[in-house]
Design brief:
heterodimer; A: mainly alpha; 2 domains; 0% strand; rod-shaped; B: alpha/beta; seven-stranded mixed beta sheet; 11 helices
Chain lengths: 147, 240
């Protein structure tokens, strides 16, 4: 009973610190280094677990988990959520870069387009523009209602 | 954009210093009419076509509105930010109004808001569907939106009754402070959050919403509220 609580505590702490790490300071070089260390430890632990499965079971018993495979499963859950969060944050940052890029392109194109479109004669006040275009708008609305 | 006859503008209306920002995504059916209607009052309109797959861009080109085209679809929040950036770069722009493309907003409401800004009673004026006549909002939507406003700590802090209304107006100070980073629909909550943490004076006015069949069909699904909550809760903190 006490052992079950211990493994729960460990897994919850893992999940909690992961959330903290990734939401508050995931992009710093510091965090990136820790990610790499974690990956390295993960691989070494894997190799060890494959070679000496009994040792994993021994550790599992002492943590209050029944079998070694269960321990591996629990750790895998933590690792997968870690990966998912990491990917999500990565996408957010990529999305921001794409947005900035697209906005810069859109604004540059629009300055050119609109200065050509709206400065040639048409632009003596919104009113005149509207009136001259009203018949066209009617044609358009009838066209769209018939389709 | 330079105005060749500024005195003419004054005779027609007082809104040469006001810019309407309309994010557009697949609104080809109605956008031209909405823009024509709004142009009768507001001479300066910028439509941000957010990568529409229909003929929205051509429809806008047929009007007197400025057109900014996102090369790919980025979301309404991104379109608003782009439109504000474009309008801020125009000479003489002092007041900025965000306006929905589906025709559910009324220009008289926008005029009221700009008048409030002009009298320097506020830096930001938000439209609310709930200050007066609430019958026009469909029941289910009303319950959800009121809950959203009630559970949002920032909305409570600003004493807002409606945190998800697309009709907003800002003066130059407020518009240049606004940095919308939520590309999708979470931008509404983000804007309220930014306002709550700024020293801007925010006020709410009642607005009329026309819930036509068209806007009802286009309106965001209530399930999208889950997406909004997720995006907001996982927002990168402490970003510069």
């Amino acid at each position: 009973m006490k052992g079950t609580l211990l493994i729960q505590l460990i897994l919850l702490l893992g999940a909690g610190s992961m959330l903290f790490l990734f939401i508050w300071r995931w992009h710093t070089a510091h965090t990136r280094a820790w990610k790499r260390i974690a990956f390295f430890v993960f691989v070494v632990a894997n190799v060890y677990a494959v070679l000496r499965p009994d040792d994993v079971t021994w550790v599992a018993h002492h943590l209050g988990v029944g079998r070694g495979t269960d321990l591996v499963l629990y750790l895998l859950v933590v690792a997968v959520s870690f990966y998912a969060l990491n990917t999500y944050m990565r996408f957010r940052s990529l999305e921001k870069q794409v947005t900035d890029l697209a906005r810069a392109v859109a604004l540059r194109d629009a300055m050119l387009l609109n200065s050509e479109r709206l400065s040639s004669g048409q632009l003596s006040g919104g009113h005149l523009v509207t009136e001259s275009l009203d018949p066209q708008a009617e044609v358009r609305s009838t066209a769209s209602s018939s389709s | 954009m330079t105005r060749p006859f500024p005195h003419l503008g004054d005779a027609v209306n007082d809104y040469h210093d006001t810019w309407l920002v309309i994010p557009v995504y697949n609104e080809g059916q109605v956008i031209a009419d909405v823009v024509e209607q709004a142009l009768k009052v507001f001479p300066n309109i910028v439509c941000v076509n957010d990568g529409s797959s229909d003929d929205s861009a051509e429809r806008i080109l047929g009007t007197g509105a400025h057109l900014v085209q996102h090369p790919v679809n980025l979301g309404q929040g991104a379109a608003l930010q782009t439109g504000l950036a474009y309008a801020l770069a125009q000479p003489g722009a002092e007041f900025f109004v965000t306006f929905d493309a589906d025709g559910q907003h009324q220009t008289p409401d926008a005029e009221t808001m700009v008048a409030l800004l002009r009298s320097d009673a506020a830096d930001v004026v938000l439209g609310s569907r709930f200050i007066e006549q609430t019958e026009q909002v469909p029941m289910l939507k009303r319950v959800v939106l009121r809950t959203a406003a009630a559970v949002s700590p920032t909305a409570r802090r600003l004493k807002l009754t409606d945190s998800h209304n697309g009709l907003r107006s800002l003066n130059r100070k407020a518009a240049s402070q606004l940095r919308i980073t939520m590309n999708g629909m979470a931008h509404a909550s983000e804007i309220v959050g930014l306002l709550a943490h700024s020293d801007l004076r925010v006020t709410e006015v009642p607005v009329d919403i026309l819930y036509t069949d068209y806007s009802r069909a286009k309106g965001q699904s209530l399930l999208n509220g889950v997406n909004i909550l997720f995006d907001i809760s996982l927002r990168e903190r402490g970003r510069r």
